[in-house]
Design a protein that fits this description.
The structure is a homodimer. Chain A is of the alpha/beta class. Chain A folds into two domains: 237 residues, Aldehyde Dehydrogenase, Chain A, domain 1 (3-Layer(aba) Sandwich), CATH 3.40.605.10; 148 residues, Aldehyde Dehydrogenase, Chain A, domain 2 (3-Layer(aba) Sandwich). Helix content of chain A is 43%, strand content 21%. The first copy, chain A, contains 16 helices and 16 strands. Chains A and B meet through helix 1, helix 10, helix 15, strand 13 and strand 16 of A and helix 1, helix 10, helix 15, strand 13 and strand 16 of B.
Amino acid sequence: MPTHEQLITELGHRGRRAARALAESTAARRNEALREAAGWIRRREAEILAANQADLTAAETQGLDEAMIDRLRLDPDRIDSIADGLEAIAELPDPLERVLADWTRPNGLRIQRVSVPLGVIGVIYESRPNVTADAAGLCIKAGNAVILRGGSEAVNSNRALHEALSDGLVRAGLDGNSAQLLPTQERAAVGALLRAHASLDMVVPRGGKSLVQRVQNEARVPVLAHLDGNNHLYVHASADPAMSRDVVVNAKLRRPGICGALETLLIDRAWLDHAPALLDALIERGCELRGDGAIQALNAAVRPASEQDWDTEYLAPILSIRVVEDGAAALDHIRRHGSGHTDGLLAEDREAAAGFLKRLDSAIAVHNTSTQFADGGEFGFGAEIGIATGRLHARGPVGVEQLTTFQYRVLGAGQTRP
Amino acid sequence: MPTHEQLITELGHRGRRAARALAESTAARRNEALREAAGWIRRREAEILAANQADLTAAETQGLDEAMIDRLRLDPDRIDSIADGLEAIAELPDPLERVLADWTRPNGLRIQRVSVPLGVIGVIYESRPNVTADAAGLCIKAGNAVILRGGSEAVNSNRALHEALSDGLVRAGLDGNSAQLLPTQERAAVGALLRAHASLDMVVPRGGKSLVQRVQNEARVPVLAHLDGNNHLYVHASADPAMSRDVVVNAKLRRPGICGALETLLIDRAWLDHAPALLDALIERGCELRGDGAIQALNAAVRPASEQDWDTEYLAPILSIRVVEDGAAALDHIRRHGSGHTDGLLAEDREAAAGFLKRLDSAIAVHNTSTQFADGGEFGFGAEIGIATGRLHARGPVGVEQLTTFQYRVLGAGQTRP
C-alpha cells in the first residue's frame, strides 16, 4: 500500500502531464472534450442514477438530514442540467492566449502579458455531485488539470459521473488524467493533497464554513476560498422608497440561503419615515426582523437584535436592522461586522453613493441593486466555481478567466541590457 | 511583557487603521508623504550614518563576510539614492481607482472592476537597509500599510531610516503607523507575524533562498515569493550568430549575480557550427563553461557538466551548456530543470519562436533578448519589490500595480434578480 503522500505524488505527476497537454491543446479540442463529456453523462444516465441510489440509501441508513439528502439526489432533470452545464462552458470564449496588456519600451522591446493556464487545481467539495462535472468543466476550459475530492456521502455518484466525464475527455483526445478523482475517502489523503506544493498550484474548497476553514488551516498550497457572506445594504437619506423596498425584499428573500443574500440592513435616521412600509413589506413576505430600539419602536413584530445578530450570516428569512446616523456610521458598522463579500447602498444622491462605494472594502460593492446579483452567471462570466472572499488573485465570482494566470512575453531584436 | 501574538495583534490593529486612512487618502497626499519622507531621510543623513556605523562595527566584531558588510554599508551617496528612490515612486502614476474593466449587462447593470489597495503587507528582508524605505514607499504608493522586519545585522540602520521616513509621512498628514517596524528581533515574533491572518493580507520575503523557504513554510498568510532564477536560453537552428553571441554574453555576464542571469544555454545541434565563436566570446570575458560531451569537444577549456549543474543557479560567471536535438528537447530540459522565472530563445524563425514561447511555462518568456531584462524597472514599472515566481496574483516583476487588488462596483437603477 502506498502512503497518502506517495498516492498524492503519483496523482500530481499525472496531473502535471495532463496539464502540460491541456496547455498545448487547442480551444476547439477542449470544447469538443466538454461536449463529449456532456454526451457521455447523458448516455450513462441509468448507471449514474443507480450509483446515486446507492448513495441515497446509505444516506438514509445513516440518518442524514432532508436538506443534505436533497443536495445529494440526482434525477434525469438534474443529470440533464449537469450535461447542459458542460455544453454551456464549451460555448464560453476561450480564456487563454488573451493579450491582457501590450506595450513597447523605449529600447524597442515589446512586452505582452498573455493569459495562460494556472496548472493543476484541486477542488474539494461536499455533497452536491454536480460539482464533479462543473468544476472539471471550468478547470479544463481554462487549460488546467483538476484533482477532485467530493464528499464521502456522494462517493458512488461522483465516481459514476467522473467515469462518464473521463470517457468523454479521452474520446475527444485529451489526456485521461485531465480530471482525476481522489481514489480514497480517507481524510489523511486530503491532508496530503493540501500540503502538496509540487503537485497542486491552487486548491478551491467548495462547501460549508467548516470545510473551508479546515482547508485554509491545513493548506500549504494557495487557497481560493469563500468564507462568509454577511452582506449589508445602507439606505441613504436620498434613497427612493419604492426602489429600496423592492431591492431589499429581493436581496433578502429571493433566495435567503445563497451567499449573496442580504443579512443586515442599515437605515439612515433621515430615511426613517419611509421605514414602516419597508418593514411591512418584509413581514408580509414572511421575513423575521430583528432590530435596534428605533426599529422595534416602528413595528411590534420586530424582535430585539443582540450584538451577535450583527455578526450572523443567517442564510434564512431573518434580517437584522439598525438605524445609523450617516454613511460614516454605516461604513463603521460594515467594517466591524462585515465579511467583505457584497455590500452597498441605496441612494439617489450619486456623489454620496460613489464616495460610499469607494470606501467600502468589499469584493463586490453594489449601488441601487440587489446583493443577490453577486454571482458569476449574473456578472456574465457564464459559470463560476465559487465566490472568492480573499484579497489576492481573484475576488468575487470565480469563472474561467479567474482560473488562469499570465505570462510576460518579451519580444526583442537582439537588445542587451546596458 | 506582551506575548509575540499580542504584539503582532496590536501592530495589526494599528496597521489596519492606517490602511483604512491610506485607502481614503488622495494620491496627492500619498505622493507628498513620499517626498517628505525623502526629505527627512536626506536631513537625517548624519544620524542614519551613525546608526549604520554601529551596525558595521557589530558586523565586524561578529566576523560577517565582506559581501554582507558591503550590503549593509550606507554612505552619503547610498542615502541620497534611497531618497531619490522615494521621490521616483512619488512620480509614478497612481495605481488606485483604475477602471480595469467596465461592462453593462443586458439588464442594464453596469459592472466595473476597479483597482483598490491590498490592505496590510508584511515585508521581511535581510541585510540591505535601503529595503526599509523602498518597500515602505511602494506599499504606501499603492495605498497599503506595511509592517517591516529587517535583518538583525541592520537593526540600527533600519530604525534610523524608519524614524526619518515616519516623520516625513506624519508631516504630510498620513497615519504614523502607515509603515511600522517590528520592534523586536526575536525570530518567534516573525513566526507570529507570518501566522497573523487577521493582521496581514500578504507577506513579501526579500532575501536569500533560506529566508524565502522559511517564510513559505511558516506563513498562514498569502506569500508573494521569489525563489530560484535558474534561467535558460535555447539557441534555435535559425538563430543569428552575432545576435546570439551578444545576447548570451549579456544574459550571463552583465551581472551574473542577479536573479535574471542566464544559467544554462541549450544549443540546437543544427546551430553547432556557430558555437565555437560563442564559446570563445564567453571564455574571453572570464566565464567558466561546463558542457556535455558535444560542447566539450569544441573547446578544451570546457569542463564536464554534471547532472547537478543543470539544476544549479550559479549566480556567478559560470554557464552550463547542452546540445539539444530540437525545440521539443529544449522545452523538455527546461521543464525538468527550470524554475519558471525567465526562459526563452534566440531564433530568426518567428513562427518557431512563437510556438516555443507559448509552450514555455515561465513567468517571463523572452525572444531574441537578454534574460537580464527580467526587472520591474526594465518593464517600465518604475520600481519593484521583487520578482514573483509563484503563479497566483502576481507573476514576474512586482511593482506598485501588483501591490493592489480590485473591487467590483455594480451600479444599478433598482434592478432585482428574477
